[in-house]
């Protein structure tokens, strides 16, 4: 139960969450929200419809919005601060809501089981030194060194992260991809670029049907990271300015981005930034911005039930027609056409607007 000293995060049924805060005799509730946009169905029907049926609410009167878990926690803490005047960190909120005696007991029990199993079967984990050599190869952008590491015969076994062998391989792959992404960032890659690549490979791993395909995807990702780090680091100071510009662009992708403000923050002239960016990236700053907005909006068209107009507004476009024109330039189709072709069916059925662009 929530109290004024501890706001409560309540999980109804994954991925539906609420935030609950007590204020005197009142209860303040944030939600329901979905914290996982990949979960679109429950019990074979769209998640919003399932929620409406469960609570006896007319379907048209309920909409389950997607909200990243960290942002959801920030909203809960903002309301908590408004009501109490107290501050709390996200880490404390999570610790107080999810780290309990039952969880601690379960962790210790599983640790003892795994330790006993490894001792009984005389197993050892995979080589830590080998892993470090691979990660250093990615950080240094050394594809030759990385290839030699991949060809090494390594003693030991990988951890078992699921009782299902295929799922265990997927879990290990996701861990390996996340570590490789961070090694690439350490080597100079823009975080947004590295994590975008990571996300795309994770989705492909999740869809894989056999362990060989999973291993091939992980190795391909590692090599791609090493190649990109090499390319990033050979361009020198001009490349640093471009990378900083891209970082600022991604940070402000949900609003109108003005080139002179980016240049001002980087302490260069707009003309210099434009020239360097075009030379290094082969694309103008404005085209890079628009291409990035289109790429992000494509995800929302596939995985959300937001209308085309709402998505365009979210990414700072002045009108639906402007959004449609830019989207078609970089996708060879309109937003509505893109949603109809690639979107999840339950969402495409809801898009009633006529495509006039």
Gyration radius, to the nearest Å? 24 Å
Q: Which consecutive residue ranges, at least 5 long each, have pLDDT under 50?
A: 352-357
Query: How far apart are the termini?
Result: 51 Å
Structural class of the helices, strands and pairings?
alpha+beta
CATH C-level of the largest domain: Mainly Alpha
Number of domains: 3
How large a portion of the residues is in β-strands, by DSSP E?
5-15%
CATH architecture of the largest domain: Orthogonal Bundle
Determine the mean pLDDT.
80
Most strands sheet: 4 strands, mixed
Largest sheet strand order? 1-2-3-6
Number of DSSP-assigned strands:
6
| CATH superfamily placement of the largest domain | Homeodomain-like
Q: What does the overall shape look like? A: globular
CATH fold-level assignment of the largest domain: Arc Repressor Mutant, subunit A
Task: Work out the helicity level.
Answer: 55-70%
- Per DSSP, the total helix count is 17
Q: From N to C, what is the helix and strand string?
A: EEEEEHEHHHHHHHHHHHHHHHH
Question: Explain this structure to me?
Answer:
- The chain is 62% helix and 8% strand.
- It folds into three domains: 8-99, no CATH class; 128-233; 237-348, Arc Repressor Mutant, subunit A (Orthogonal Bundle).
- The longest helix is centred in the middle third of the chain and has 23 residues, at 211-233.
- With 357 residues, the protein is an alpha+beta fold.
- It is globular and about 65 Å long.
- The strands form two sheets. It has a four-stranded mixed sheet. Strands 4-5 form a two-stranded antiparallel ribbon.
- It has helices at residues 47-55, 69-84, 90-98, 101-120, 128-140, 143-151, 165-186, 191-207, 211-233, 237-251, 259-266, 270-281, 285-303, 308-314, 320-331, 335-342, 345-348, and strands spanning 8-13, 16-23, 26-34, 41-42, 45-46, 65-66.
- Helix 7 packs antiparallel against helix 8 and helix 10 crosses helix 12 (270-281).
């Amino acid at each position: 139960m929530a109290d004024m000293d501890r706001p409560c995060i309540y999980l109804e049924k994954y991925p539906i969450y609420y935030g609950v805060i007590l204020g005197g005799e009142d209860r303040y509730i944030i939600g329901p929200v979905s914290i996982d946009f990949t979960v679109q169905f429950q019990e074979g029907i769209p998640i919003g419809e399932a929620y409406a049926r469960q609570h006896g609410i007319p379907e048209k009167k309920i909409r389950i919005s997607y909200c990243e878990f960290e942002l959801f926690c920030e909203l809960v803490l903002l309301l908590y601060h408004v009501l109490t005047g107290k501050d709390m960190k996200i880490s404390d909120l999570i610790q107080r809501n999810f780290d309990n005696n039952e969880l601690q007991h379960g962790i210790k029990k599983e640790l003892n089981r795994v330790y006993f199993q490894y001792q009984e079967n005389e197993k050892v984990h995979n080589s830590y030194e080998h892993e470090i050599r691979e990660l250093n190869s990615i950080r240094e952008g050394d594809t030759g060194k990385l290839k030699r590491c991949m060809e090494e015969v390594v003693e030991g076994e990988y951890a078992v992260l699921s009782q299902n062998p295929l799922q265990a391989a997927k879990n290990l792959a996701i861990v390996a991809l996340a570590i490789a992404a961070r090694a690439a960032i350490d080597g100079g890659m823009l975080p947004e670029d590295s994590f975008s690549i990571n996300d795309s490979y994770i989705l492909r791993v999740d869809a894989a049907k056999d362990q060989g395909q999973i291993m091939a995807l992980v190795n391909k990702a590692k090599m791609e990271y090493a190649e990109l780090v090499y390319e990033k680091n050979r361009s020198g100071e001009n490349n640093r300015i471009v990378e900083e510009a891209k970082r600022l662009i991604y940070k402000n992708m949900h609003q109108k981005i003005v080139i002179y403000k980016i240049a001002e923050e980087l302490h260069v002239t707009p003309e210099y930034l434009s020239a360097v960016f075009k030379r290094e990236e082969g694309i103008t700053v404005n085209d890079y911005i628009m291409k990035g907005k289109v790429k992000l909006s494509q995800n929302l068209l596939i995985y959300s039930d937001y209308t085309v107009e709402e998505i365009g507004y979210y990414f700072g476009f002045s009108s639906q027609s402007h959004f449609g024109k830019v989207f078609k330039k970089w996708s060879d189709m309109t937003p509505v056409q893109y949603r109809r072709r690639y979107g999840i069916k339950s969402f495409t059925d809801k898009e009633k607007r006529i495509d006039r662009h």
